[in-house]
């Protein structure tokens, strides 16, 4: 099948003339082999055979012309008031049985059109793909949030033993006694702990800024 986007009337007339040059006559009892569709202003050229791959589809019924009295434009193309962006992948699916999408094309958009045109196999494929994607998103590993706690030597054991649920000890950094405020000389430590976060992108927002600064230099 050939897909055509055409603007000018002259090209349209030319294309209509082109259809008459096919050597193979249509089989007895059927209409012409080639079908023109005007989907939301974009013209697609395809075959009756392609459109009828899915017998129950709107497109198959349309080109058989039994039930649907569809409007046609001045070139004789069937007028369909739908978004042409998503029609390309739908038509290609009918041509070769595969769903091929540009990476920025929304599967929801294709699903909407597949449901409108009633193409059962394509609806199932898209729904499966969307479910797989949801499952993959659910499997994304959790974020790790790190906290840096400053404490004196004698507080270390107590702090590690009373660490709240979900926090895990990561690293201990000896910073000597430079943070001493006039007390007896005690070794001070920075204790790095981490926690897995599943759905809180701003887990560090409650951290005092000096801890956040220390964190960035350590990790």
From TrEMBL:
Gene Ontology BP annotations: positive regulation of cilium assembly; proteasome-mediated ubiquitin-dependent protein catabolic process; protein homooligomerization
Gene Ontology MF terms in the entry: cullin family protein binding
UniProt-listed Pfam families: BTB_2 (PF02214)
Domain of life: Eukaryota
Annotated Gene Ontology cellular component terms: Cul3-RING ubiquitin ligase complex; cytoplasm
Span of domain BTB: 33-134
Name of this protein: KCD17 protein
Gene: Kctd17
């Amino acid at each position: 099948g050939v897909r055509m986007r055409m603007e000018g009337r002259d090209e349209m007339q030319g294309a209509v003339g082109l259809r008459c040059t096919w050597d193979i006559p249509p089989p007895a009892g059927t209409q012409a082999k080639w079908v023109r569709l005007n989907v939301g202003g974009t013209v697609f050229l395809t075959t009756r055979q392609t459109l009828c791959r899915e017998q129950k589809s709107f497109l198959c019924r349309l080109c058989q012309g039994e039930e649907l009295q569809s409007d046609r434009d001045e070139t004789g193309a069937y007028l369909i008031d739908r978004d042409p962006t998503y029609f390309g992948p739908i038509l290609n699916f009918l041509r070769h049985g595969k769903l091929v999408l540009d990476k920025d094309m929304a599967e929801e958009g294709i699903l909407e059109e597949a449901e409108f045109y009633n193409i059962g196999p394509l609806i199932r494929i898209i729904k499966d793909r969307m479910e797989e994607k949801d499952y993959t998103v659910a499997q994304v590993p959790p974020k790790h949030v790190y906290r840096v706690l400053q404490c004196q030597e004698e507080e270390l054991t107590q702090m590690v033993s009373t660490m709240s649920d979900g926090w895990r000890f990561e690293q201990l950094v000896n910073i000597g006694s430079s943070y001493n405020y006039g007390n007896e000389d005690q070794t001070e430590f920075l204790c790095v702990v981490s926690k897995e976060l599943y759905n809180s992108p701003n887990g560090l927002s409650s951290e005092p800024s000096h801890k956040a600064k220390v964190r960035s230099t350590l990790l």
